[in-house]
């Protein structure tokens, strides 16, 4: 399945270069991540359905980009839409419906170890039936799009419908899929609420990747200037890549419990940046209006003030955020600080040794600990 993705993307690159189109496609990065993570998970943990799901996403992506490249080459060379070209145009009708839902609703339902319980099986079956109905209906559309032309679909049904997505079938399917997506989100929330230990850390990784993607989608929906901007073209592939990468880290358990530290640092620096920017703008506004020396002095003074406040403010914000998001590290630091305070006044070696062992056990929870005293 990974080979199908590699062949499809490789063929797409060759065909796009032959048609004079740019071979660079930013969205190849996230779908390569889906395929690569799927292969790693499927090889190391073949019983985890999420690995095979990601490999399926890779296969559909390979088929989609290869067929799109065939159409581009045919239009560039002036070929007629027959044979392989017609097959490529027909593939473009339906392939992205399952691709879209596999990378969203199915991922939400199946991460990290499959369905949380049997009661969620009706959601999977309903989602699968709806996706199949949409894909089949799209594949049987009366026409296929070839450039600016709409040609008869060799396997299509005769109808006066111009856009299959305007039919009652697709309207009902859209409502069903919306309900399934909501149910998928609910299932993830239920699983997170009941999870403990490893599974909870895995779900935190997943939510980290999903939050990056969700933040980008919110910007796209509510900011017209963001859509199709340079920032959108950079952030969107990164956001899509975050999902498979976070899933791979969670399932393969690579630095699994670093999630609390990552979230803590991310929230800290976002909040710190906002406070410093707000403080800088406020200082510039106040100083330039009060000082008689001109705006350049106000800007310079504001810059120095913000630079001086960076470290003290960072430490304060970090303590507040760690208390909420990285409680283990926060408690460990408090334990070590308390031990340092006691160590200044304690002189008995036996008491210091016992206190040291207790501190180490509380702060880092080792499987075993011992103290070696060497006389000098």
List keywords for this structure.
about 375 residues, mainly alpha, Rhopdopsin 7-helix transmembrane proteins, two-stranded antiparallel sheet, 14 helices, about 75% helix, globular
Q: Overview of this structure, please?
A:
The chain is mostly helical and 376 residues long. The protein has 2 domains: 252 residues, Rhopdopsin 7-helix transmembrane proteins (Up-down Bundle), CATH 1.20.1070; 62 residues, no CATH class. It contains 14 helices and 2 strands, in the order αααααααββααααααα. The chain has a two-stranded antiparallel sheet with strand order 1-2. Strand 1 and strand 2 form a beta hairpin. Helix 2 packs parallel to helix 10, helix 3 packs antiparallel against helix 5 and helix 11 packs antiparallel against helix 12. It is globular, with a radius of gyration of 28 Å. The N and C termini lie far apart (65 Å).
Low-confidence spans: none
**Mean model confidence by pLDDT:** 77
The coarse overall form would be: globular
CATH topology of the largest domain: Rhopdopsin 7-helix transmembrane proteins
Indicate the CATH architecture of the largest domain: Up-down Bundle
Strand content: under 5%
Number of strands: 2
Total count of helical runs of at least 4 residues:
14
The span between the termini is 65 Å
CATH class of the largest domain: Mainly Alpha
Helix residue percentage: over 70%
Strand order of the largest sheet: 1-2
Structural class: mainly alpha
SSE order, as H and E?
HHHHHHHEEHHHHHHH
Radius of gyration: 28 Å
Number of domains: 2
The biggest beta sheet reads:
2 strands, antiparallel
